């Protein structure tokens, strides 16, 4: 079978199309004919060798930690009713960018009729994390998903990286909960998309003085919730727009690091700091939220924005496109 393999740490050129033996489903596993592979910005960072203290994967390895496809074979102990079903599966750190992949039956989530597999793949990670962020920042009241007591309606929410795969989902989810949403994106095309998705105000983060325009949109008190998917100095600037007693969630670091927020300053201002570790989920939680994201998509209430699809053989080109930051939304590999 064909695979997209990272041969060494380095630039996109280390990502090549290769051939590997067909895998076989073991006990409690299924074999999936892969149709679409989720592609994350952090995977481009891991490919360069960044984050070795957090990620154990080492070259050579097959790219891809989330897939959508059709169950082709079932191992011992697996209900044969899974055969032929369209599913998504999170595989861990890698192994999905291939014609065939093996997944534990406990990792499978059925894809509803009418939801394209490319759409399903785009929700495997970002849909789950976005829903978890809504929960952890108190924006999921009365959804039936959690028991937390946050108030969604009329909260002021600032979202950085609002035109990215995660950001576009967060804009939609926050608006659906009745929040007042201010999105930060760069450039006319990206800001137009965020506005189309329902943000109440959109600020171009590439322009000088964007913080002043964001403050004007949020009001003098600032944001009740900041969802920072960018990190670095832009994330720190967004933190400074958090209202006293608000919540600041740092869940993305495409700049190379999370926002360098001073914990003492946050304590003085009674700002609750949340990080990516606050959305580490059990398998059961991940399955539940993945199924919820797919149901929302099937009902037309949640739309992942796919800015580019690339065949498996062009995985290196997909990584270049992600790193260039020219696309909006998600990038998905197709098989």
Q: How would you describe this protein?
A:
The N and C termini lie close together (11 Å). It contains 10 helices and 16 strands. It has 335 residues and is an alpha/beta fold. Strand 10, helix 5 (188-196) and strand 11 form a beta-alpha-beta unit. Mean pLDDT is 92; it is low at 140-151. Strands 3, 5, 6, 7, 8, 15 and 16 form a 7-stranded mixed beta sheet that branches. Strands 11-10-9-12-13-14 form a 6-stranded parallel beta sheet, with helices on both faces.
Structural descriptors:
27% strand, globular, alpha/beta, 29% helix, 335 residues
Low-confidence stretches: 140-151
Radius of gyration: 20 Å
SS class = alpha/beta
What is the tally of beta strands?
16
The main sheet comes to: 7 strands, mixed
State the end-to-end CA separation: 11 Å
Query: Count of helices?
Result: 10
The proportion of residues in beta strands is: 25-35%
Helix percent band = 25-40%
Shape: globular
Order of H and E elements: EEEHEEEEEHHEHEHEHEHEHEHEHE
